[in-house]
Design goal:
With about 180 residues, the protein is α+β, with helices and mostly antiparallel strands. Helices cover about 40% and strands about 25% of the residues. It is built from four helices and six strands; from the N terminus they run H-H-E-H-H-E-E-E-E-E.
Length: about 180
């Protein structure tokens, strides 16, 4: 049986044909590129959320330290300001807490008062550890804390929800302590 030259040339021509290579390369690369795009989107969203949490924590502490005495309603309004600060993210799942801590002459830190939104306030007279650089004997300090559950919007089964937290200490500005009324 003799194979014709025409059939041999046809077989070699088919082997040299590159028309489908681009489609095969795209089929291999597309899922990887899509995952990279979605991962970049999620990373950007997480960084943006973390930044908003930091801004909200600082604002809560900053606003509180400007008072000489504060009512429970005013403290709750300050905590509620996180709604505007966290936009476009929802502040509803977050926990926002502000506390005043007294560090006595012996260096023991205890909570004077605390208010919280969507969480449990620190118990009055409970002990707390204050960082060495912040703790000054016989002084008051304001502690603002934020905890926020971040859940990715895309790929939820692959990426679980995780807690983002932030805390900041500030000294009262207009008096040595801030009384809660």
């Amino acid at each position: 049986m003799m194979i014709s030259i025409r059939k041999i040339r046809s077989a070699f021509a088919w082997a040299k044909c590159a028309r489908g290579i681009a489609a095969v390369e795209f089929a291999i690369a597309a899922p990887i590129l899509i995952l990279m795009f979605l991962g970049t989107f999620q990373l950007t969203d997480a960084v943006g959320t973390k930044r908003k949490i930091g801004i909200a924590t600082r604002a809560i502490a900053d606003l509180t330290t400007q008072y000489t005495s504060i009512s429970s309603l005013e403290a709750d309004s300050i905590l509620l300001s996180a709604n505007q600060i966290m936009a476009p993210y929802s502040a509803a799942p977050g926990t926002f807490t502000v506390s005043q801590i007294y560090i006595n002459a012996a260096g023991v830190a205890k909570v004077s008062w605390s208010r919280s939104r969507n969480g449990t306030a620190r118990a009055a007279n409970s002990s707390i550890t204050v960082p060495t650089g912040v703790a000054q004997n016989d002084s008051y300090v304001i502690l603002a804390e934020t905890s926020y559950p971040f859940s990715p919007t895309i790929g939820m089964p692959m990426f679980p929800t995780f807690q983002m937290t932030d805390a900041i200490y500030m000294y009262p500005r207009r008096s040595s302590s801030i009384e809660l009324q």
